[in-house]
Write a structure and sequence with these properties.
single chain, three-stranded antiparallel beta sheet, 445 residues, mainly alpha, 15 helices
């Protein structure tokens, strides 16, 4: 037992010595702090735009146009519908009833998530303002049930297996004018987390940090001659590479953890929430952090191998970075349906984030479709177009762009595990190739 303990203690001392030496090298280099500062600064700069968006009031738009007085009789269209008068006939109006102010009929039908089940058929909306129910009028249930689901005045969200899309089927005048401010802030908040998380932290920092910090992990020591002191000790070259990687991760991973924690605090306090701090998104930032840590591990192993292979290994690293950038955009634009993204590191890293987003925000598909439908696609005039009330609600388009499915055809938890295991396998494979090349390297070159 004592011999075994001696072996492990010697191994621990070797690992600790090389890792600490590597971290000390990083801490004493100005370039390290410049790289970390640029990464932090770029994220904080983008966060300023987020803070501005969260503190900017979104103008309410009458998406269904029932606040308009088309016939000039002083009564908004929505009020005339409720009382059964003709909104396009000036002589037809609710007698003895005071006209409603137009503002009452803007944002009057918000989305209702109370009974949403996220199953193949979900009841996700009902009539808030009464212009579908039209109580007191002789209107049959069949007239109030235009979507044919036997429930008057509601919205049915259908999932089409054929087109792999959500389809909204609504009874007349139901949830047609949602709260633009409420929806817009929530959509922009989610879009920011996904956009910065996927393209900023996981891709940009995930490849930027290893490019400058890991490419010369072995190459620089070979060029400076300091590697002679390491290999003179009774330690395998593969171990040296592994322990140097530990030192590199000892700098990069705490930086990523601190950055994600900072971003979580900012979005938690500034994001739309009924409480002081928004706790619901902490799982999303945790997922982004894990994905970034795995990606920097893989890129670090690959780039350090490039440095061993060639003195100008940074050239190979830049070529790979260009390929990975393309794969990142393919992953986002294809929505997780492209097979080619699996031939990359970033494709699997973004799958971890996509799987996490589906767990943290299970209503995402419905939320995006509601924002697209609620923007006034079927009720668009020139005034609505000028004010942005056509097409989709504010924030819906950037959220739709950055949101993707993981595309693995399994549950979200299993997809996250599979993608993480693939990244770890890629890291081990890169280390194995790197240590094989290292073993065959002469120190005098």
């Amino acid at each position: 037992m004592s011999d075994k303990n001696n072996v492990w203690s010697k191994l621990d001392r070797k690992a600790t010595a090389i890792a600490e030496f590597t971290m000390r090298q990083y801490r004493t280099r100005i370039s390290t702090w410049v790289v970390l500062s640029v990464g932090l600064g770029s994220m904080l700069l983008v966060t300023l735009f987020y803070a501005d968006a969260m503190n900017t009031q979104i103008e309410a738009i009458d998406n269904d146009q029932d606040s308009y007085d088309w016939d000039g009789d002083g009564y908004p269209t929505g009020q005339e519908i409720i009382y059964g008068t003709d909104p396009y006939n000036q002589a037809s109006y609710p007698i003895g009833i005071e006209p409603d102010p137009p503002e009452k009929w803007i944002n009057e039908d918000d989305f209702n998530w109370d009974n949403a089940s996220f199953a193949s058929i979900s009841k996700v909306g009902y009539d808030d303002d009464g212009d579908c129910l039209r109580e007191g009028q002789l209107v049959s249930d069949s007239q109030k049930d235009s979507n044919g689901d036997s429930i008057p005045c509601n919205i049915v969200l259908l999932y089409s297996n054929y087109s792999n899309t959500l389809v909204i089927s609504s009874d007349g005048n139901v949830d047609e004018d949602p709260d633009d401010e409420k929806y817009g802030k929530e959509a922009l908040h989610r879009a920011f987390i996904l956009g910065v998380g996927k393209m900023g932290i996981v891709y940009l920092l995930g490849i930027f940090l290893p490019l400058f910090l890991a490419t010369g992990l072995i190459r620089d020591e070979m060029a400076n001659g300091t590697m002679h002191f390491m290999i003179a000790k009774p330690i395998a070259r593969g171990e040296i590479l592994a322990y140097r990687m530990l030192g590199y991760l000892g700098i990069v991973w705490p930086f990523l953890i601190g950055l994600c924690l900072l971003m979580a605090l900012v979005t938690g306090f500034l994001g739309p929430s009924e409480s002081v701090f928004r706790l619901s998104d902490l799982g999303m930032w945790f997922t982004i952090c894990i994905a970034a840590m795995l990606v920097t591990l893989v890129y670090g192993a690959i780039f350090s191998t490039f440095g061993i292979l060639w003195k100008q290994g940074v050239v190979l690293a830049i070529i790979l970075a260009a390929w990975e950038l393309g794969m990142a955009f393919v992953s986002v634009l294809a929505g997780g349906d492209s097979a080619i993204q699996k031939f990359s590191v970033i494709g699997w890293g973004l799958m971890v984030v996509d799987a996490g987003a589906a767990v943290v925000w299970p209503d995402m598909a419905m939320f995006i479709e509601m924002g697209n439908w609620g923007g006034g696609n079927n009720n668009c005039n020139w005034e609505s177009y000028e004010r942005g009330g056509c097409g989709s609600l504010i924030g819906n388009e950037p959220l739709s762009f950055f949101n993707s499915a993981h595309g693995l055809g399994v549950s979200n938890w299993i997809a996250a595990i599979i993608a993480s295991l693939v990244l770890l396998t890629q890291a081990v494979a890169a280390w194995f190739i790197g240590q094989s090349l290292f073993k065959g390297k002469e120190m005098d070159d």
